[in-house]
């Protein structure tokens, strides 16, 4: 039998065998865990804030939003956020990676406020900030 004929038969055999392989199906592990893993980072830090650091002309009744690189352990939230000069009582909480804070009453006009996240704020993966992290904004 000529060599080209052997190669042709071998190629036909390989391609027909490949077409018999089952199609991969998504696993429950990939559906549930993969989105969680891909939305986190290997570090726990502030990703963004609203108002942004250094913002001016901020409303006297702002909603302060802090987005972290990992989901937040809500039990570490209450004692690890401060505002100076003293803000009216901040209420709010967190959902996944987002901390939302709202002052109980209007902030003072023309004042620069600094929000500080304490180094002990923790992600659901057990990572902490490791250092106090702050951002500031100035009201109207």
What's the order of the H and E elements?
A: HHEEEEEEEE
* Number of helical segments with 4 or more residues: 2
Given the C-alpha coordinates, what overall shape results? elongated
- Number of beta strands: 8
Strand content: 25-35%
Helix content: 10-25%
Summing up helix and strand content along with how strands pair, one would put the structural category as alpha+beta
Strand order of the largest sheet: 1-3-6-5
Unreliable runs: none
State the domain count. Answer: 2
CATH architecture verdict of the largest domain = Sandwich
Radius of gyration (Å): 27 Å
CATH topology value of the largest domain: Immunoglobulin-like
CATH class of the largest domain: Mainly Beta
Mean pLDDT metric: 83
Q: How far apart are the termini?
A: 90 Å
Largest sheet: 4 strands, antiparallel
What can you tell me about this protein's structure?
It is a single chain. With 140 residues, the chain is of the alpha+beta class. It has two domains: 3-37; 42-139, Immunoglobulin-like (Sandwich), CATH 2.60.40.1220. The chain has helices at 3-18, 28-38; strands at 46-50, 55-58, 64-68, 81-84, 90-95, 98-103, 112-117, 133-139. The protein has a four-stranded antiparallel beta sheet, with no helix packed on it. Strands 2-8-7-4 form a four-stranded mixed beta sheet, with no helix packed on it. It is elongated and about 95 Å long. The mean pLDDT is 83. Residues 43-139 form the SbsA Ig-like domain. InterPro entries: SbsA_Ig (IPR032812). Keywords: Signal. Pfam families: Big_5. This is Ig-like protein.
